[in-house]
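Person: I keep going back and forth on a fold encoding question. Show me how you would write down a chain together with its backbone fold. Please set it down just below, with no commentary around it:
Helper:
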Amino acid sequence: MDFILSVLISSAAFYLGAKLLPGVTIKSFVQAIMVALAVAVLNLTLGLALKVLTLGILSLGIFKFVLSAILITVADYFLDGLKVQNFLWALALAATVAIIDGLFNWVL
């Protein structure tokens, strides 16, 4: 149940982030759910590998946003419902999703 709630919160964060940022497009909330699931799977696979490879850099907190932006860029490549213009917009989306996700988790 916690995983479903986490995916729904992340989906809402991605959807709101896409509405706030002009360089990011998500077609619908259903597509936002697909994006959240894809980023979660990528974070478990590719994200884990990147974290291991860059263990020394992870002490810098900003790298978490860079890693999230990389995963969003990879998700953009594979998903039709997500369009991110460039890496800077992916970085802005990662920061926006982190803030919105944190706010949702704080409220709940």
